[in-house]
From TrEMBL:
The gene is dltC. InterPro entries: ACP-like_sf (IPR036736), PP-bd_ACP (IPR009081). Gene3D superfamilies: ACP-like. Pfam families: PP-binding. This is D-alanyl carrier protein.
């Protein structure tokens, strides 16, 4: 299973809706600060990585595509 297909259900669970891979998450207020914490914890568990709080920024977390790119950079 590719990274996007592993991330997408986690994000959609927090956003309470189906999402496009390039749909903004934070700048459109689909996920709030508490959702961000939950998402980071879910991603850490799913991919067995540690996410530094300094990495939780719009350029890494504002869409499923951006999350996938961030995760790829952490596991490669």
């Amino acid at each position: 299973m590719d990274i996007i297909n592993r991330i997408k259900p986690l994000v959609e669970e927090l956003a309470f809706k189906k999402l496009e891979n390039d749909e903004p998450l934070y700048t459109s207020n689909l996920i709030d600060s508490m959702g961000t914490v939950d998402l980071a914890m879910m991603l850490e568990e799913e991919f067995n990585i540690k996410i530094d709080t300094r990495d939780i920024i719009v350029s890494n977390f504002d869409s499923i595509e951006k999350l996938a790119n961030y995760i790829k950079s952490r596991i490669e």
